[in-house]
Amino acid sequence: MTGRLRRNDITQITDGAVGLILVSQRWLAERGRTARSVIAGWGHRTVGLGLQQKLARNSDSHLVMPHVNQAITDAFDRAGVADVDQLDAIETHDCMTPSEYMAIDHFGITAPGESWKAIEDGSLESDGRIPMNPSGGLIGGGHPVGATGARMLLDATKQVSNGAGDYQVDGAERVATLNIGGSTATTACFIVENANT
Question: All domains of the chain, ordered by start, with CATH?
Fold first, then answer.
């Protein structure tokens, strides 16, 4: 059915819990420990909840949700990343198929409205130009609301420390995460790097 989401286009809400402990390099050194990964950059944007409010606010942009791109750009700038081609993988919040399409062109993998090209040409596969959701994403692994972003950071850490097992992207040293909530009312992007890079 055109213009409608089907059951397989939307993640199932699942139970889950997660906790992250972020520590400084000083804390690690004092305890004789080493980091597996570091958060090299971050970006966060918030906008109103209503869709019409977002669309009206962004009517002069070539992107549907430019605040999502701004969160990504902020994270890139803080991490010293010039563009998406300096990433080895992306874990994105694919709560619905359109969310992943939006992430593709808002990261700059394709031009706006051409996200389908990255899918068709294999760019997002594990051995492609920029693997997206090698973990299986929310559709593959479930959507524990509130724990999703932390799970994505864990998967990014696994990738950059060569600990992702059967979904490891060869040579991954820098992975981005993109988490959206409340219909993109809040968007957070992190750049996670191997601590030894």
Answer: 39-194 (3.40.47.10)
Answer whether 65's CB lies under 8 Å from 54's CB.
Answer: yes
pLDDT tens digits for 147-191? Answer: 788 889 999 999 999 999 999 999 999 999 999 877 778 899 999
Question: Cβ neighbours of residue 23 under 8 Å, at least 6 residues apart?
Answer: 35
Separation of CA 96 from chain center? 14
User: Which of 102, 154, 100, 162 lies closest to 132, judged by CA?
Assistant: 100
Place of tokens 């909840």: 49
Closest by CA position to 92, among listed 79, 83, 80, 105 = 105
CA dihedral (83, 99, 127, 175) positive or negative: positive
Name the CA radius of gyration of the chain, rounded: 17
Q: Who contacts 41 (Cβ-Cβ below 8 Å, separation ≥6)?
A: 74, 75, 76, 77, 78, 79, 80, 81, 190, 191
